[in-house]
UniProtKB/TrEMBL annotation:
The keyword ATP-binding applies. Keywords: ATP-binding, Hydrolase, Nucleotide-binding, Protease, Repeat. This is ATP-dependent Clp protease ATP-binding subunit ClpA. InterPro entries: Clp_N_dom_sf, Clp_R_N. GO terms for molecular function: ATP binding; peptidase activity. Transmembrane segments: none annotated. Residues 2-180 form the Clp R domain. It comes from the Bacteria. Pfam families: Clp_N. One of its GO terms (biological process) is proteolysis. The keyword Nucleotide-binding applies.
Length: 180
């Protein structure tokens, strides 16, 4: 499938990996792909902007959500009887200050490839289906945006929460995808 990706679509996939790596995410999900599309010049970013989406604000909000979502939730852990502060104190008493943070960075630093989540894989599959539906031999960023917003996904939720008219954004992305 990736051999059909245009330069902007390939860049978006590579950039999504960088977004995930920067956020210390263990996997690439549809939000990482959306951030990459919003940051990269191309048909997807144009459709977002023409659809009234403030791409800079979208990227900032998405990055904050991604980073917050990957953190341990002390309240959730406490609900099952785990005191995160006590675990941290005991670990640092045994292994030294910052041991948990170092362990997380080392594990992530060794990984060269970051895998896609099922929702990101589904979005890429839907992008291919959108390209086929529109009669395109290639998959570009507009098709990726269509794939991200075709069904329910964290990326679609981010767009909705940002006040975007997702149907209008889809219509604009489809228009640019037909022309390509």
């Amino acid at each position: 499938m990736f051999e059909r990706f245009t330069k902007d679509a390939r860049s978006a996939v590579v950039d999504a990996q960088q977004v995930a790596r920067h956020a210390h995410s263990d996997q690439i999900d549809s939000r990482h792909l959306l951030v990459a599309l919003a940051e990269c010049a191309g048909p997807a970013r144009t459709a977002l902007a023409d659809g009234g989406v403030d791409t800079a604000a979208l990227v900032e909000s998405a990055r904050a959500r991604i980073e917050a979502g990957d953190a341990l939730d002390p309240a959730a852990l406490a609900a099952v009887g785990i005191d995160l502060d006590e675990v941290t104190r005991a670990t640092e008493a045994t292994f030294g200050e910052g041991a948990l943070a170092r362990a997380g960075r080392t594990l992530r630093g060794r990984r060269k490839h970051i895998p896609f989540t099922p929702d990101a894989k589904k979005s890429l599959e839907l992008a291919l289906r959108e390209a086929i539906r529109l009669g395109s031999k290639e998959i570009h960023g507009g098709h990726l945006l269509l794939g991200l917003t075709r069904g329910e996904s964290p990326a679609r939720t981010l767009l909705s929460d940002a006040g975007a008219d997702v149907d209008r954004v889809r219509h604009l992305a489809e228009g640019s995808s037909r022309a390509a």
